[in-house]
Design goal:
Belongs to the glycosyl hydrolase 3 family. This protein is of the alpha/beta class and 788 residues long. It has three domains: 333 residues, Glycoside hydrolase, family 3, N-terminal domain (TIM Barrel), CATH 3.20.20.300; 198 residues, Glycoside hydrolase family 3 C-terminal domain (Rossmann fold, 3-Layer(aba) Sandwich), CATH 3.40.50; 136 residues, Immunoglobulins (Immunoglobulin-like, Sandwich), CATH 2.60.40.10. The protein has 22 helices and 28 strands. About 3% of the residues have low confidence.
Length: 788
C-alpha cells in the first residue's frame, strides 16, 4: 500500500508522502480548477504581455445574466478540459449549481468527470467538488432557506446550526465535498448590495451565527468556506469590489473577530479571500492577512481558495501584477492555495518558478495543504469511488428541510411597530398591494438557485413549490382580501395603481407589501453588484405607500428586503410595520402567521432601520463623534429602529441586574445576571442582549458593543434568570501601540432589548496592570438560563 493511501496515518503525513513523489506539473494541477460553464471551447490564453494590453479583456459583458463577476470577460485565458485535467485537478466548480440539472444528471456528470480526472493522473487523485450553499444548496429543486440576514434576525445559533446540518447532508449525499459559505462579513454600509448575504452589523452576532453554520455543515463531512476574508463590506460608498480605506484598529476589532471565532471555535476547513484591496494591498496578495494573521496567529491549517477570478484581478483590475505568472506568484506566496473557479493564472506557475518569482518550497506549501484536505475528505483512500455513498435520487427539498426553513422564517420576522391593528381581525376586509405579494422570488436571496441561475431567462421559474402571500393569507384567515400590484420592484406604476389605492380606501385595513427582488450586477434591487446610492425604497414603491397612507385607512407596511431601508418619512403614519429579511420558501406562511397572530414575532433587528435616506450608511458600532448630532452636524445619525430592536405580541421586562463582583483582575472574569419576565398572557421569546461600554480608554472606543446574547423562551407570566460570564478578554481592544490589550479602569455592563434600550449600567473596575492579550484569547461570552 502506498503511504498516502494508508488511512491509519495522519492526513498531513499522507499528504507529505504523496507530495514527495509528484512532479512539478502534477503539483501545480492540484492548485487548479475547472468550471464547465458552456459547451464552447475555452478561449486560448494570449501570450503574456503588459498590463495595458490586458485591459482590453476586462470589458462589460453584453450577456443578459452572469452568475459571477465579469464571467464572460474572463473567458479569455481559461484552460479547456483536456489541459486542465492532464496530470490531475484540484477542484471541480459547481456541477449542480451552474445550470438546471436534475440530481440524477448532476450525479452522473460528476462521476464521469471524476473518473476522467482519476484516469489522467498517476496517483488516481479525484478533485474536490464545491458548490454554493449560502441560502441552501444552490441547485435545481433544493430548499431555499432564509437569507443570512434573516439568520441574524433569529438570534438563534442552534437553529442556524440545524439548517447548516441539513444543507451539509444534502451536499454530501450527492458527492459534494466543499460548500462556499458562510459569509462572516460585518455590515458597515447599508447601501452595499450584499447586506442580504451577511448576518448583520455586529461582529459578535455575525461570528456566533457563522460559527454555528460551520459546525453544522462540517458535522456532515462537508468542508465550510469562510468568506470574504476580510473587510469586503467596508468598501467605499458601499460599492461592490470598491477599495477599502480602513485602519488597522477597525480591521482588528470589527472585521477580523468573526473569522477568528470560526477558525478557533469552529475549526473551519477553508477560507476564501476578499476581492478588495485594503489601503492599497489586495487581499489576494496579502501575506500579512493570508499567512501571518490566518495561519501564524490563529493556527488555521486548512486551504485558502480564491474568490472567483480574484487571482486574475491582481493583474487585470488591481494592476499589481504585470502578467498571469506574476499574479499567480503573488497569490501563492501570500498563502492563497487554489485558484477558482477555473485555471487561468495558475497555469503559469511553472513560468513563475523558472523566472524566480516563486520558490519550489512555496509551491510545495500550497500543494501539501490541498493534499491534506483531500486526505481528510477520503479522496486519497485506495478504495475511493465516485459513486460510493451518492444518492442520485436525493430529495433536496425534503419535509425535514421545509420544517427547518419554516422555523427559521418564523423566528426571523420582526415586528417594528403595532398600534393594535395586529393581529388582524379575522373578519376585517384587506386591500393588499405592492410587488411582493405576487412574486415569490422576493422571498429568496441572491444566491438561491431561482434568482442566481433560473432568472437568466428573464422569467419567474423557481423549480420549487412556494406558496405566495395570497394563498397563505387565505389559508390563515377567513376575511376577504383584494390584491393589486400597484408598482413593480424597479419599474414605475403598474396599470392598476389607482385601483390599488381605491381598494385601500374602501378596505378596513390596507396591507402594503414592499421590498426587494434579488439579482446580480444591477439585475435586482438587492444582491451582488446591486448597490444603491441611498436608502430610499426601491423604484416608485414609496409613491404607492404615500398614496395608500393618504387614504386614511389603517395601513400595515410589510417589508421583504435584503437590506434596511429608511422609513422615517412613513413610520408615524403606519399602523404597523413588519420587517422580513428574505425569509425563504416558507416565507409567505411565516409572514401571514405574524399578521394573523398564529406566529408570535420574535425576530430582532440584526441591522438598524435608518430614519433618513442618506445620513446613516454606517452602523450602531460607532464612536461618540459618529453618533451625536447636537451642536456637531445638521445630520442626525441615530436610527429610527435600533440594532437589536423588535416587538412581540407578548410583553417582557428586564429586572434585578447584578454583577458577581465590582472588581476583577485584568485576566479575571465576572458574572452579570438579569431576570427576564414575560408579563403578558401569551408565550413568547425575548432576546436578552448584554452591552459593554468603556467610559475612558487610551483610544476612541464605540459607545456600546454587544458582547453576549440569549434568546429566551418564556411561558405567560414566567421569569428566568440569565447569567453571562464575562472574561476580561471580552473587554480587550487594539491599543494606541496596535497591540491588543485589557486596560485597567472602569467598564460598564448593561442588559437590554436593543442597543438603545438598556438597563442602567453596572460598573466593574478592572484592576492590575495594562495587559497585552496573547493569541488565543477568550472570544465568547458563555450564557446560562435558569428558572427564576
Amino acid at each position: 500500500m502506498n503511504t498516502w493511501n494508508d488511512t491509519s496515518l495522519p492526513a498531513d503525513q499522507r499528504a507529505a508522502a504523496l507530495l514527495s513523489v509528484m512532479s512539478r506539473q502534477e503539483k501545480i494541477h492540484q492548485l487548479a480548477s475547472f468550471w464547465e460553464r458552456d459547451e464552447e471551447e475555452a478561449v486560448p490564453a494570449p501570450e503574456p504581455v503588459d498590463v495595458g494590453d490586458h485591459d482590453d479583456e476586462v470589458v462589460a459583458s453584453e450577456a443578459a445574466h452572469q452568475v459571477a463577476p465579469m464571467e464572460d470577460a474572463f473567458k479569455v485565458g481559461r484552460q479547456g478540459w483536456e489541459e486542465s485535467v492532464d496530470g490531475g485537478l484540484g477542484h471541480l466548480t459547481r456541477i449542480y449549481g451552474t445550470d438546471p440539472v436534475s440530481v440524477a444528471d448532476g450525479a452522473a456528470k460528476l462521476a464521469r468527470l471524476q473518473r476522467d480526472i482519476v484516469s489522467r493522473n498517476a496517483f488516481g487523485i479525484p478533485a474536490i467538488a464545491h458548490e454554493e450553499c449560502l441560502t441552501g444548496f444552490t441547485a435545481l429543486g433544493a430548499t431555499v432557506y432564509p437569507a443570512a440576514i434573516a439568520w441574524g434576525a433569529t438570534w438563534r445559533p442552534a437553529l442556524v446550526e440545524q439548517m447548516a446540518g441539513r444543507i451539509g447532508a444534502d451536499l454530501r449525499a450527492v458527492g459534494v465535498h466543499q460548500g462556499l459559505a458562510p459569509l462572516l462579513d460585518v455590515v458597515r454600509d447599508y447601501r452595499w448590495g450584499r447586506v442580504e448575504e451577511t448576518c448583520g452589523e455586529d461582529p459578535y452576532l455575525v461570528g456566533t451565527l457563522g460559527t454555528a453554520y460551520v459546525r453544522g455543515l462540517q458535522a456532515q463531512g462537508v468542508h465550510a468556506t469562510l468568506k470574504h476574508f476580510v473587510a469586503y463590506p467596508a468598501s467605499k460608498a458601499g460599492r461592490n469590489h470598491a477599495p477599502v480605506s480602513m485602519g488597522q484598529r477597525e480591521l482588528e476589532d470589527v472585521m477580523l473577530p468573526p473569522f477568528e471565532m470560526a477558525v478557533r471555535e469552529g475549526d473551519v476547513a477553508s477560507v476564501m479571500n476578499s476581492y478588495s484591496d485594503i489601503d492599497g494591498e489586495p487581499v489576494a496578495a496579502s501575506r500579512h492577512l493570508l499567512t501571518q494573521v490566518l495561519r501564524e496567529r490563529w493556527g488555521f491549517s486548512g486551504t485558502v481558495v480564491s474568490d472567483y477570478w480574484s487571482v486574475r484581478f491582481l493583474q487585470a483590475m488591481h494592476h499589481v501584477a504585470g502578467d498571469y505568472a506574476h499574479a499567480a506568484a503573488l497569490a501563492v506566496r501570500a498563502g492563497l492555495d487554489v485558484e477558482l473557479p477555473e485555471t487561468t493564472c495558475y497555469s503559469h506557475l511553472e513560468a513563475a518558478l523558472d523566472a524566480g518569482l516563486l520558490t519550489e518550497a512555496e509551491l510545495d506549501t500550497a500543494v501539501v495543504r490541498v493534499l491534506t484536505q483531500k486526505a481528510r475528505l477520503g479522496l486519497l483512500n485506495a478504495d475511493w469511488e465516485p459513486t460510493a455513498g451518492v444518492d442520485a435520487g436525493r430529495d433536496l427539498d425534503s419535509p425535514g428541510n421545509r420544517a427547518v426553513a419554516r422555523a427559521l422564517a418564523e423566528e426571523s420576522v420582526i415586528l417594528l411597530k403595532n398600534d393594535g391593528v395586529l393581529p388582524l381581525a379575522p373578519d376585517a376586509s384587506l386591500a393588499v398591494s405592492g410587488p411582493v405579494w405576487e412574486d415569490v422570488r422576493s422571498f429568496l436571496g441572491c444566491y438561491s438557485f431561482p434568482n442566481h441561475v433560473l432568472s437568466r431567462d428573464g422569467g419567474r421559474t423557481t423549480g420549487l413549490e412556494i406558496r405566495d402571500l395570497p394563498e397563505a393569507l387565505r389559508a390563515a384567515r377567513p376575511g376577504g382580501a383584494t390584491f393589486h400590484r400597484g408598482v413593480g420592484f424597479i419599474d414605475g406604476r403598474a396599470d392598476d395603481f389607482d385601483t390599488a389605492v381605491d381598494a385601500a380606501a374602501a378596505a378596513d385595513v390596507a396591507v402594503v407589501t414592499l421590498g426587494d427582488i434579488a439579482g446580480l450586477f444591477g439585475g435586482g434591487t438587492s444582491g451582488e453588484g446591486c448597490d444603491v446610492v441611498d436608502l430610499g425604497l426601491p423604484g416608485r414603491q414609496g409613491e404607492l405607500l404615500e398614496a395608500v397612507l393618504a387614504t386614511g385607512t389603517p395601513t400595515v407596511l410589510v417589508l421583504v428586503t435584503g437590506r434596511p431601508y429608511a422609513l422615517g418619512e412613513y413610520a408615524d403614519r403606519c399602523a404597523a410595520i413588519v420587517q422580513a429579511f428574505m425569509p425563504g420558501v416558507e416565507g409567505a406562511d411565516a409572514i401571514a402567521g405574524v399578521l394573523t397572530g398564529a406566529v408570535n414575532p420574535s425576530g430582532r433587528l440584526p441591522v438598524a432601520i435608518p430614519n433618513g435616506r442618506g445620513g446613516q450608511p454606517s452602523t450602531y458600532l460607532a464612536a461618540p463623534l459618529a453618533w451625536h448630532a447636537d451642536g456637531i452636524s445638521n445630520l442626525d445619525p441615530t436610527p429610527l429602529y435600533p440594532f437589536g430592536y423588535g416587538l412581540s405580541y407578548s410583553s417582557f421586562t428586564l429586572t434585578d441586574p447584578a454583577v458577581s463582583a465590582t472588581r476583577m483582575d485584568a485576566d479575571g472574569r465576572v458574572d452579570y445576571t438579569v431576570t427576564v419576565t414575560n408579563t403578558s398572557d401569551r408565550a413568547g421569546a425575548e432576546v436578552v442582549q448584554l452591552y459593554l461600554s468603556d467610559p475612558v480608554a487610551e483610544v476612541v472606543r464605540p459607545l456600546k458593543a454587544l458582547i453576549g446574547f440569549a434568546k429566551v423562551d418564556l411561558e405567560a407570566g414566567e421569569s428566568k434568570r440569565v447569567t453571562f460570564t464575562v472574561h476580561a478578554d471580552r473587554t480587550s481592544f487594539t491599543g494606541v501601540d496596535y497591540r491588543r490589550i485589557v486596560e485597567p479602569g472602569q467598564i460598564l455592563l448593561a442588559a437590554g432589548t436593543s442597543s438603545e434600550d438598556r438597563l442602567a449600567p453596572l460598573a466593574v473596575e478592572i484592576t492590575g496592570q495594562r495587559r497585552v492579550v496573547d493569541e488565543g484569547r477568550v472570544l465568547t461570552t458563555p450564557v446560562v438560563v435558569t428558572s427564576a
